[in-house]
Design a protein that fits this description.
Structural class: mainly alpha
Mean pLDDT: 82
Radius of gyration: 22 Å
Number of strands: 2
CATH superfamily of the largest domain: Tetracycline Repressor, domain 2
Order of helices and strands: HEEHHHHHHHHH
Length: 212
Amino acid sequence: MSSRRVSRVERTAGGDDARAPAAGGRARNPELDDAIATATTALLEERGFAGLTIEAIARRAGVARATVYRRWPNLDALLAHVLQGLVQDIPVPDRGHVRADLVELLEDQLAVVKRDASKLYPSLGITARNDPNARQTAVDLMQHRRTAVCTVLRRGIDRGQVAPNVDLDQAFFLLWGAVYYKFVFALARRAPIEPDFIPSLVDTVLVSIGTN
């Protein structure tokens, strides 16, 4: 959103960012919320967490600092709101075999991490130390991935492709833990991840938990 457009929004009905009166204060303008969130994400990508300030966010969004503070009391609260956007439902593939499903699921999630993790994931970890909403976001994010992986594994048990006594949590951490830390290692080295890494990983784990 441009500064000019934001300024017009701020001058609507009764001034500032109100659209309609609300009990206990003025109604939130979602256009301004989006502009501030977009500015925050853009600055995170450009500067990282260390270079992020409310003043810089307000300047990029074309609003006053007071407009930001009326919505979020501090930078941690604003970041928690922005990072909540990382939590999304994860499509669970069904290719008829646990191996194919795990490979597709993990490759899809690795692509998500590559897209979001360069700046947003580190910011989530930093913010989660101090902000309970950010901590809940981190929990929700991991729970979504755990649910997707365990859905595939339970389906594999039903099909006789995974041992019925498998520890689902342990299997999840073996799979996703390896994917995530492989990504972190590759990011630190500025090196690509081998194309066959996930298929090889899935094959290795299935040696332990599979029935064949």
